[in-house]
Amino acid sequence: MVQKLRYSLILTHSLLFFSLVHAQGEAEDLIESVVLDKHSINITINKSFKEMWLRDDFFASYEKDINLQQMPYSIALLPFILNIYPVVWVSGKDYVIDCMDEDTYYSLERIKKIFQRLYPSTPFLGNLIPKTLVKNAPSTSLVNNETDIAVLYSSGLDSTACSFQYHDKRQLLITAQGQGDLPTRMDRLWNSHKKRFIKYAQDYGHTNAFVKCNYTEFLNFEVLEKVSEEIRAWRVDTTEGIGLFGAAAPILFAKGYSTLHIGSTFTWEYPWPTAANPLVDSNLTVASAFSLKHVHFDINRFEKVKLIVDLVRTKNIKIPFMRVCDAQIHGGNCCLNCAKCQTVINSFLVLNENPVPYGFKVTFEQIEERAKEYFTDTKGYWTCWNFCVMQEQLRELPWIPEEAEWLREFDFMSCAGYFLAGTKIRVNWENFRDLAPHTLEIPAISPCNCDNTKKKIIQERKRKAYAKKMLKRNRRRNLYRSIPMQELEATILSNRLQAAVQFETMKNTEPAACDTTCCVQKAQDSETESFDPQDIQTQDSKDQTLIEAL
Length: 550
What we know:
This protein is an alpha/beta fold. Among the domains are: 20-134, no CATH class; 485-549. Helix content is 46%, strand content 12%. The chain has 18 helices and twelve strands. The strands form two sheets. It has a nine-stranded mixed β-sheet, sandwiched between helices. A three-stranded parallel β-sheet has the order 1-5-6.
């Protein structure tokens, strides 16, 4: 029986490599050149692929204790591979690279199946094909996970709650420069934040590791987020956890940390699909031993704040400084203009915890005033969802501060911009159990009032209306694009000439005299409907905009 299984595995691998070799003959190289130094890697990407999907080539640089030249080449390539794979999939073409870690290759094949189920209307027809699959293993002894862990840390709520969850363990806090709020070009801003990251580690007995990588900046989001109406935010919907793991992979490999912990942004109950979930992250294995653990997908933002506050109160742990704001790059938290600040400061209000030591310079009275002002117009679904879920929990509390009483009754979901979810279909995690690794338990999801039948009907109606609108827009675009540019310009020029002739004719022609009431009325109407030359200029501007767009 064992012998038959062995032959079966050999046959499977043989068929796989036969298909890979066959596909290589028809595919282009994704990488033009690689410059691999001790502490950095620079990758020049296929020119036509880059022009279509990207803004720049790829780079990643590490601190001096990370030597990329001493690790397998297939490991050094992981920062690039784990940030480019979904772009290749949506490109619809096959691209070849020299090599790939074998476990990574099979992990991405499983993740692709998850994507196809998360976004059923999106074609993932492209393939990233390695010329060689490399079976890697750890090159150094692994640290003991019972006492030491690696955590992705940014000082936001999710990463701080993740760090506090394991407050009794020594932590390697890995932080990346290259996120939207920490651009690689802004070293002064980075150095300012880096001091805070180091201070946090010192305060709690942890250590730091840093990477500078353009893993978000090299992508052309303007193009990628128009690929499918199911993919509205490229990073979150396709790459978030896996891409960050890729940037951190050389650090984990060099230091022997087998598991990277990442704090969740969403929960099992959140109705819209994204790739920032434990189903995707738990399917990733690298070099036989390295994996990604998605933490806190079972608790919401209010519960994360409560976790931190409870530990501060009961364990006498130092209050952490948090920077959760995504509305401004410089300075601290805005406390008013973004969903992340609003959810956190209102959680502090409910828990009767002073937010100032945590990095929020507001009073309870200001929190109430600003929150009510914030919800005077339509907000994103994620924002309203978090407040609605918090509201469900507030109704069970025996007491909350007077300033927070309005949170118990306000209809947050009435402010939700359902259409912002595009044409996404609600995710049912029950349908993904066959794709979950044995280490992941998908819980039974109980519907809550924030996603009741009435709200589902409203959303479905708006989703269909939005899909219909997008279909009409795309048809109109395709119609214009089907017209040759010279013919389109000639048509526009002809329309301009006709408008000019009409204007001159109307200006030089006097209405004919007529005794009848009908003719008098027509003459009066003609005088009233004067032709404005500004109309021609306005039309010229619209025509020029159309030509530039095409």
